Amino acid sequence: MLSLLSSLAVTWLAGQALAIDLTVSKTGGNSSSELLYGIMFEDINNSGDGGIHGQLLRNNGFQGTDPGLTGYAAVGDVTITQDTSNPVSSAITSSLKVAVPSGATGFVGFANEGYEGVPVLAQTYANYFWMKGDYSGTINLRLVGNSSGTVFADHNITVASNASAFSYYDTSFTSTASTDGNNVWQLRFDASKVAGSSLNFGLVQLFPPTYNSRYNGLRDDVASFLAEVKPSFLRFPGGNNIEGASPSDRWKWNETIGPVVDRPGREGDWTYPNTDALGLDEYLYWCEDMGMEPVLAVWSGLSLGGGIVSGDALDPYVDDILNELEYVLGSTDTTYGALRAKNGRTEPWDVSYIEVGNEDNLNSGCGTYASRFTQIYDAVHAAYPDLTIIASTTSTSCLPSTIPSGVITDIHHYLTPDEFIEEFNEWDNWSRDWPILVGEYASTTGNDGSTTYWSYMQGSCAEAVYMIGMERNSDIVKMASFAPLLEHFDMAEWSPDLFGLDASPDSITGSTSYYVQKMFSTNRGSTILPVNTTADFGPVYWVASADSDTYYVKLANYGSSTQNVTVNIEGTTSGSLELLSGGEAVSNYPHDVSITTATSSVAGSSSFTVDLPAWGVAVLAVS
Ligand code: AHR
Fold first, then answer.
1. What are residue 298's phi and psi, to 5 degrees?
2. Pick the CATH number of 72-207 from 2.60.120.260, 2.102.10.10, 3.40.1050.10, 3.30.565.10
3. What is the pLDDT of residue 4?
C-alpha cells in the first residue's frame, strides 16, 4: 500500500511543480570575493582588431604572415602594391604604393574595407595616415557605401609631402549614417599631380569615438555595452594568444607599447595578424576606465606549437617578465618605469595579480610546469612580494608539490549544460586554503554532443547554476570569467562568445549568457547567507547574499516546467525582480535579440513569490 501511494505521489510530482520555500538567514554565512565576476580577453575572433579596439581599417601595417593586399582596393585607374622598399618605420616594414599612369586626371587613390566592412554612423571619425612622395595639394578622405556608392563623409585636407621621408597627417571629420556595414574608407588625391609616378601611404588609421575619449582607445559603443556588465577584473592577454605558435611567436609585451608606428604586430595564435595597437598600456587604461582589477598573464615558457622553454633556458624570459613588471609597476627612476613615463603614463599601474602562463596542463606543458612556475614565482615574489600570483592550472600533477601560500590556481571549463549541473557542487568541499580562479568557462556543447554555435537558454541557465555554485563558495572562488568574450560575427574562429558584432549599425548583440553575466555581476552582496529550506537543489538552484540592508537571491530553474519559489527574508518589504527567460533552445541573434532581462517591482512583507519559468534565471533584490 505504501509503495502504491509513493508511486502515485511520484507520478503526480512529475507533472506538477512543487512549491519551493526558501528562508534566508540574516546571520552566518561566508564572505564573498568582491572580484568574483570579471572578464577574460584575448584577440580571438577579431575581438581586438576589428572588435573592441577602435581602429577600423584592416591590414594597415601589413603585419602578420604574408598579409598581401588584404583589405585594400584601387580607386580609379591606379595600381596598388605592398611596398617593402618603403617601410614606414623599423616596425611597420611595408607601405602601400599607389602608382598613377601617365596622363591620368581626376581623383584616384585606394580604399580599405575594414574588418568585413567599415561601421559608418552619424559621428565624428579621427583619421591618421603617413604618406611619402612629392605631392602638394588636396587629400580627399571619404566613407562610401561599397555597392551603393553613397558618400557618407567627404573631407579634404591640404598636405605637402615629399619623397625623402614619410610625413604624418592627423585629421577628423563627421559622417552621416549608413544603413548597413558594406562600406569602405577611401583616400584619394589629384592624379594629374602624380601622373607617371607614385605615392606611398602607411599605417592608415580610422577611429570612431573612443571609450573615455582615449587616443588609440576602445570603440565607445562596444566598450560601453561591455561596461554594463560591471566586470570586476580583466584577465588578459590570453588565453592561447599569449602562447605563440613557437617561443619566438609569443605575445611580447615590449612590442605592444609606445607609438603604434613602432609596434611590429605579430601573427596571433588564432590564425590572423594582430596589430598590437591594443597593447599593454591600452589594456591597463581599459582596466582603469572600467574599474577592473588587471589580471596580467605572463609567458611561462609554453608555446602552442609544442616549443617549451624550461630550466636555465627560461632565465632570459624570467628577466623579461621582471622587465615587464618594472614597466608596469616601477618608479620613473627605473629603466622601464621611465619608458612607461615616456609613453605617457607617469604613475605606475595598479596591478596586483599576475598569472603564470595559460593552460600549462595542456600542450605537453604539465611535466615542466612545476619547475617553470617555481622559477617564475621565486623571481617575481622576491621582487614584488605583494603581488598575488596565479598558476594556470589546478592539476596537482602539474603543480609544485607544495603550492606557495596565497597562490591562486586557474581552472577552465568548456562543458555541456548537464556537465555544468554536475559541477554545481565542485567547490563545496574544496580546501578553504586553496583559492581558485575559474579563468574560462562556457557551455560550448549541447547535451546531445552537438557544437553550440551561439548560447541558448538551456546552456546559459546551466552556466547560471554553476555560477550559483561558485558564488556559494566565493570565499575561495575569488574570480570567474566567461570565455571567450567577443566575436566579430563574420570573422569568428570560436563560438559561442559572450557578445558579438559586425560592421552593420546596431549589430552589438548580447548572447543569453551575456544577460546572465550582467544579472549576476550587477547584483552582488558582500556576504553569502545560509538559506533554510526542505527543498533539494534541482531543478531550482539558489544563492543568497547581502550588502548592508539589501538582500540578493539568485535563482536558476534548470528544468522544463515553471517552478513556484517563495523567498522569505525577515524585515524586507520591497525591491525588484530581474528575470531572464525563453524557450530551452532560444538564442539571441544579430539584429534579432529576443531574450533580455525584464525587471519588475516587487512588494511584500518579508515574503516574495517568484514564478520561475522553465530554463529561467532570476535575481530578487529586496531590502
Ligand atoms: O577561450 C578560447 C581558448 O580556450 C583560450 O584561448 C584557451 O585558454 C582555451 O583553451
1. -115, 155
2. 2.60.120.260
3. 33
